[in-house]
Amino acid sequence: MPRNSQFIAHPGLHPASDTCQVSATGSLGTRFSSVVPSTLDTRGSCLRGPPGLLSGLPSQSPARSQCAEGFTSAACMQARSGAPRGRLCPPGTMLVAFASLLSCLLTSGEAKAYSRCELARVLQDFGLDGYRGYSLADWVCLAYFTSGFNTAAVDHEADGSTNNGIFQISSRKWCRDRNPNVPNRCQMYCSDLLNPNLKDTIICAMKIAQQPQGLSSWDAWRQHCQGKDLRDWVDGCDL
Question: Is the pLDDT of residue 182 over 50?
């Protein structure tokens, strides 16, 4: 065999004779092959062959040994080219990831979760105390059981509609979402209802309260607030 040859064992090519085919590439690029007796380990690799042949196989190819020593030969470069490389993300993937991150940052920056008394003061400043016969406590109770005082709350329904903002106002009638054919009685986009300053939300909520059902338009108010002592909702607040 030529010196500096690289041996590759190919088990299973001659199963009937219990042999392995051994190939070698010489330093000048000449390829040799031979079938030799051997046994196979559990992974299908040749374990032994004629004395002095397989036992002398190098643990790694000469090219890789030279690379480890800092050589820059063509063989070394070829050996390096077979090493696993990290893949760069396609440009489109990077853009999508950046857009998602930007969306999360903007959403988190605009979201606000009010405290009970803080919300009570804001609703009072907008004139909701006593509006259409409902106390300030009614509105605070409603906000808690619809959104937990979270201005950025959005609930997705099975029909594709959404409930938006601190009062969870529905896109089926009151605001415009993805469906341009909804009535949009509040004449605003549903995203306007996620604004932490609550101006658009309160304007729209007042229009809903003007309906014959009043606050009964919200299931949460009927189930948790209607007919109950609500004084605790504004108790201790500096109003």
Answer: yes
